[in-house]
Design a protein that fits this description.
By secondary structure, the chain is α/β, with parallel strands linked by helices. It contains 8 helices and 8 strands, in the order αβαβαβαββαβααββα.
């Protein structure tokens, strides 16, 4: 949503790495009712990148809805969701592929040994750690970093989980991973390199309360 400024760099990074990897690939961008030039940026990029598909969704419904649309539309045997800000560079996909083994889901983590969170302000680091303590204790035991926006799924797991998901907003990751644990999809967490973007839309007080509220709501729904 409204990512005309950050998306070009991320798309160029994705195309360059994927083309050099030798993998067959497609790049999907789901536009969640943007009011800026996001779609125009994508169309310009698609003019020299035939692997790019743009899916328009309107009106704006939230990150969870947009990711669900993209994951269910993807045609690959493996499906990666990643954020438009490119905080986790595409080269980190190699780590997820190497560590995935037989797991249905490999998720990037800033907080495992070997993971990095460059440039993250102290307040945001503290906020993130507190939010994840709450999530681990109440909903996702064993998961250190549920919110890193870099997650790889087999096509089968993606269809199973995203066809069942209901959360349209920012905490959709929690629902997807909780569903995965309950439905027996193996999850492996992989340390990745991550860099903070100062233009992040995270707001500490408001979003911490939202995480707590929605974590409890997801837990009740699944129970």
């Amino acid at each position: 949503f409204n990512e005309e400024q950050r998306l070009p760099r991320m798309l160029a990074d994705a195309r360059t790495w994927l083309a050099a990897s030798g993998l067959a690939f497609e790049i999907l961008v789901v536009d969640d009712g943007s009011t800026d030039g996001t779609v125009d940026v994508c169309r310009a990029f698609a003019a020299h990148t035939p692997e790019l598909r743009v899916i328009s969704s309107s009106p704006n419904r939230g990150k969870g809805h947009a990711v669900r649309v993209g994951m269910l539309a993807a045609r690959g045997a493996l499906v990666l969701m990643c954020d438009a800000d490119g905080s986790t560079p595409m080269r980190e996909l190699a780590k997820l592929l190497a560590r995935r083994e037989n797991a249905a889901i490999a998720i990037g983590s800033r907080y495992l040994d070997g993971g990095t969170a460059h440039g993250q302000p102290l307040w945001r680091r503290a906020w993130s750690r507190l939010a994840h303590v709450i999530v681990r204790r109440s909903l996702l035991p064993g998961i250190r970093d549920a919110h890193c926006g870099f997650k790889l799924f087999t096509a089968e797991a993606a269809r199973d989980l995203f066809s069942r998901s209901t959360v349209d907003g920012w905490t959709f990751d929690l629902e997807i991973l909780a569903l995965a644990q309950r439905r027996g999809h193996a999850i492996v967490e992989v340390a990745v390199d991550w860099r903070d973007d100062a233009r992040s839309r995270v707001r500490a007080g408001r979003d911490l309360l939202r995480v707590v509220h929605e974590t409890l709501a997801i837990e009740r729904t699944l129970r």
